[in-house]
Amino acid sequence: MTAPLSWRKVGGRTVHFLVLAFFTVALAFPFFWMLVAAFKQNIDLYTVENNPFKFNLPPTLDHIRLLFGQTRFVRWLGNTALVGGIVVAITLLLALPAAYALTRLTGRWGERLGIAIFLTYLIPPTLLFIPLSRVVALLGLQDTIWSVVLVYPSMTIPFSIWLLMGFFKSIPKELEDAAMVDGLTRFGAFVRMVVPISVSGILTVVIFSFTLVTQEFVYALTFISPESNQMIGVGIPIFLVRGDVYFWGSLMAACLIASLPIAVLYNMFLDRFIAGFTVGSVK
Amino acid sequence: MAVTSPKIKSIGAAKSPLLGTAMFAPSVLYIVLLIGVPFTLAVLYAFSDARIGSTSFRFVGLENFRSILHSPSFRKALRNSIVFTLAAQVVVIVCSNILSIALEKPFRGRGFVRFLILLPWVAPVSLGTIGWKWLLDSIYSVFTWVLVALHFYKPYSAPMWLGEPHLAMASVILVHCWRLIPFSTVIMLAGRSAIPKEIPEAAAIDGAGFWRTLFQINIPIMTPILSVAVLFGIIFTFTDMTVVYILTAGGPFDSTQTLPSLAFATGIQGSDLAAGAAISLFLVPVLVAVAYLMLRLAHRAEVV
Questions:
Q1: Does domain A79-222+267-277 sit in CATH 1.10.3720.10?
Q2: Could you say which residues from 206 to 225 on chain B have a Cβ atom under 8 Å away from some Cβ of chain A?
Q3: B78 partner at 20 to 30 Å CA-CA among A72, A272, B161, B207?
Q4: What is the enclosing helix (H) or strand (E) of B303?
Q5: Which residues pair with A242 in a beta bridge?
């Protein structure tokens, strides 16, 4: 800092700042705009001549009140949390042992099978939703949240196994050997030794699975039609619209309120998810 | 996915093949039942006359494929899916490369800036898209207001962003880019942090400038990670239905219809399961190609 700044350096810094400023504004702007709309009075929102960048009338809490008082918003939040909780439980129950088995107990082809399982994560809902809608109907789960409780683990388990395999590989084998010398069975060593020290890996899977449940749209839209059984991602864009009338204020408030906690959670664990996404091409 | 027992025995490295099999079998079973079986059903449906509300199930051979290949909606959807996917990837790769360079150096407030930049990716996609629907509203769009205020258009004569075919297509691409840039940026950041610092430094000493370092050192080293970003980007755009469904529902006049949104409109809303399944099967070649390329990447990472 003591050396005199050359023009080149100043120019470089300006470009750096401008690039960051441009992308930050462009990417975050829709959320800022949700915030503005959530507190604007309807007359202010729907007067074309008004400058949309300022509050031409005092801010209002009407939209928030409408959202919590007269819509199923809270119910949808509850549904989503419930489904998220159950899906997380199913995912952990199935993925934890599977990932351990594939890293430790099955030798070389365990790795291969792990990659095969990871690849099923690439199969999108838009390929399977038509047959699954019949399966769900056949099982009598249509229009209930149990339809998505059944189907979502098929999306969370493959990636979770992949994440956990990466995690278990970093645990020294001696730990289990020592536990087994002390008289634990292989499975006992897994339950008593490996699981407890894998808290951060497990937490990553919990957040990944939960956020995936909140972000999913296609299955929830296909399987569930009654308004009160909706998940948050479908309820807001489809059911907060009455006929052709959009209640933009409440709609934007709902989007923001539902997005922010999920965004914060996901952001905290992002680096771990990315490590999974890079398929080992970054060491 | 078939796990045969002789194979287990033949590998000496396996420590407890029985326990191992017991521990991963439930997961494999779940995946087979909820991905393998529905996929097989999708193929069966595509060659049948299955409809919602009808018990008839006859095989009709290639009839569904013949009729969808003749439908103008399908051709538009196929073309749009390809155009949207390719256009979005080009924009995303350029932008996320620039953005990842800008984000690499530490600066004050980087964590918060990163959070803001990541919002489009980490927030639920359907909710972000509804935000865009408001931004692009036919009457109250903020873009329209700015353009009118700057005298580009007279009041009430500005274009309807989602109401005119080409603008609607551009809007869908824009929202896909908006959503994918953050994802691609963090993938590239991870790739950049893996470049050993000595290499660019040595290049700088040898007199390589910014562009030469970028094209002859950084990009070649980054190719694997760049491929990962592109491959995931292709999957996320090509198979996405949410953005199109919420933003335009495929309209106006099918101009933004994609394969997934057409499959939904035909198979679920139109009750024609067979035709819907046949349309969605057109996603498979792309998925297979991406899976193959991913395998090659993973294999290379293993060998190196």
A1: yes
A2: 224-225
A3: B161
A4: helix B284-303
A5: A245
